Amino acid sequence: MAFGAVWVPVTLLASSAQTLRNAMQRDLIGALGAVGAAQVRFLFGLPFAAMFLAGLLAVTGLGLPRLTALNLGWTTFGAISQVIATAMMLAAMRTKSFVVAVAYTKTEAAQIALFGLIALNDPPTVALIAAIALATIGVALMAVRSRRELAAGWRSAALGLFSATFFAFAAIGFRSAVIGVASPSKVLSASVIVVTGLAIQSAALGAYLALFDRAGARAIVNAWRSSLLAGFMGALASQLWFIAFALTEAAPVRTLALIEAPMAQVVSLKMFREPPSLREGLGMSLIVIAAGILVWTSA
């Protein structure tokens, strides 16, 4: 893999930033609604991403890369897929079987490996297949506690699977866009696509709010102070994800990102004194083993 294991710490930092952003977005849903909270991620993240890009151009002395029609096409595909995936994920999480929905959204890594093989000719290695399988089983063990719960949540499962599919489409689209940028700097390539993608997403959701939810649009403007930090963390997470995509294939990046599940469990243990069950402990162990496989094979 290109650049050895540099993508590993980048991915872990991206996961941390994303966790913080999700927590901030969750606090905004009550005041802004699901679409409004999602728009905060894009609209308020765009200025920070643009400032980072401008600073990067000033520091490196490089020119702004020109995007081809193919770059723009992949970026648009990734941006719209991410918006659809987010909407489906929110719909899945509103169903009765929340944990089932979460478990199925985590099949994203496996779907990325399949779509990456088809679209980008990125054949998965045996180690990557093993890591994806272990991590996916681990998340399922942590999220779904009984067969009855799994069987009862068919609607949640369908929404979760479709959400994961569109998240996989987004990862493939953004990686294709990033690696197609003609620039000597991978960070600059990632930054250009981040800004372009956020602009597309902000415009798309802005048009939706203007047409169907003007009250929600006004609420976003009124909540700009509380939205700035969420926007910054969203821009930071996107920047780091895209840099990771520039350094290696999308499948190992999104597989390693599943380490968020045991990290959240550790936080829960420290903050709320809630020890994991045997099932959750086994799930965490499988995810950690999967992460170890990815790190070892990339070194």
Question: SSE layout and pairings?
Answer:
Blueprint: H1 7-43, H2 45-60, H3 69-93, H4 98-105, H5 108-120, H6 126-143, H7 147-152, H8 154-179, H9 186-212, H10 214-222, H11 224-247, H12 250-256, H13 260-272, H14 278-298
Describe what this molecule looks like in 3D.
With 299 residues, this protein is mainly α. Helix 4 runs parallel beside helix 8. The radius of gyration is 19 Å and the shape is globular. The mean pLDDT is 83. 84% of the residues lie in helices and 0% in strands.
Contiguous low-pLDDT stretches (5 residues minimum) are none
**Residue-averaged pLDDT, rounded?**
83
Give a short account of the largest sheet: none
Structural class: mainly alpha
Instruction: Tell me, briefly, the overall form.
Output: globular
The portion of residues assigned to helices is over 70%
Radius of gyration: 19 Å
Following the backbone from N to C, one meets helices and strands in this order, namely: HHHHHHHHHHHHHH
Q: End-to-end span in angstroms? A: 9 Å
Care to count the β-strands? 0
Percent of sequence in beta strands: under 5%
In DSSP terms, counting alpha (H) and pi (I) runs of 4 or more, how many helices?
A: 14
Task: Quickly describe the structure.
The protein has 299 residues and is mostly helical.
Descriptive labels:
single chain; 299 residues; mainly alpha; 14 helices; globular
